[in-house]
Design goal:
The protein is α+β, with helices and mostly antiparallel strands. The protein is built from six helices and 13 strands.
């Protein structure tokens, strides 16, 4: 049995003891004597460390994942139900050869389309086309194909071709252009079919394209499926000469005030709405302020006997 060493022999540290027997001060079970032992030096790890794994890959092991799926060594498990095509972004979802040509409906001059008073923005010579995304040919990728197939089964093949003007997948989003007379039928199928279940309408937006002859007014509905976690857009158009679109109040009651606002600002008449009145502008207001053909000016102002004309009637810039 070896004689105990004094503190003067080791400088207060038992370097001769094996690394596994040395503990940090205060952690040993032997009371005060434990303070005379120390941990292994930082450059001499007591146990070998595992090789670092690649970020996000985890340990290189094989086994069986959820639902009996086999995981290969070093592979990252993919959450069940996630379609890689649906998460690849618009460029990875739809090949370019299935993207329809943009539909050019007009040409815009200047930055703001100002006429008569001049353009002081510095972009008066800018000329660019006004275009809308063209129709997309299937397959669409991701969950889009399943949604279209389910809608086709709910409506019937003939009804689907008659109801949809075109399908657009643009920037990773799905838009159904629906003929206005079939709007309630399509909305009902999107809401009630178990494979679709778009239970919530988030609102109605109006758009005015004066150059889009025969369909100058557009109503855009944003639909959300709480059940499946999907969103899509339904778009309907109507001509200026007949600005009537069926109301979706009976299918989605949340469209009540949204349709009123769209009527107020764009002049779209939602047939079947229970109380289609203005919601922001006075009841006797003439015109619809968010249309492109609405005057840009305001109202004349009188101040201390001086009359200031509205902005669009002030001096012109050459």
């Amino acid at each position: 049995m070896n004689a105990p060493r004094s503190e003067s022999d080791s400088g207060g540290r038992d370097d001769a003891a094996p690394a596994s027997d040395r503990v940090s001060p205060g952690t040993g079970p032997d009371g005060p004597d434990a303070a005379h032992t120390a941990a292994a030096p930082a450059d001499r790890p007591a146990t070998p460390e595992a090789e670092p794994a690649e970020p996000g890959t985890g340990p290189a092991t094989s086994g069986t994942g959820p639902a009996g799926r086999t995981l290969t060594a070093g592979a990252t498990p993919t959450p069940e139900g996630i379609d890689a095509a649906a998460t690849a972004g618009p460029e990875g979802t739809i090949p370019e050869d299935r993207q329809g040509d943009p539909e050019v409906i007009g040409v815009r001059h200047g930055m703001f389309g100002v006429h008569g008073t001049g353009d002081t923005s510095g972009y008066g010579g800018l000329v660019r086309p006004v275009s809308l995304p063209g129709g997309t040919g299937g397959p669409f990728g991701g969950w889009f194909d399943g949604a279209i197939a389910t809608l086709r089964a709910a409506l019937g093949p003939v009804a689907l071709e008659q109801a949809l003007e075109k399908v657009i997948v643009f920037r990773g989003e799905l838009t159904l252009h629906v003929h206005r007379e079939h709007l309630p039928l399509v909305a009902l199928a999107l809401r009630d079919d178990e494979g679709l279940r778009f239970e919530l309408c988030l609102g109605v937006n109006g758009v005015h394209y004066p150059e889009d002859e025969g369909r100058e007014l557009h109503a855009v509905y944003q639909l959300s499926s709480i059940t499946h976690g999907y969103r899509l857009r339904v778009e309907v158009s109507a001509p200026d000469a007949d600005p009537h679109i069926p109301s979706l109040f009976e299918v989605y009651p949340t469209t009540d005030w949204h349709e009123r606002e769209t009527y107020d600002f764009f002049g779209i008449v939602f047939d079947g709405h229970p109380s289609l009145t203005r919601i922001t502008m006075p009841d006797d207001w003439r015109g619809h302020p968010q249309r492109k053909d609405y005057p840009l000016g305001g109202i004349p102002v009188e101040y201390k006997g001086a009359r200031i004309p509205p902005p669009d009637q002030r001096r012109a810039y050459s």
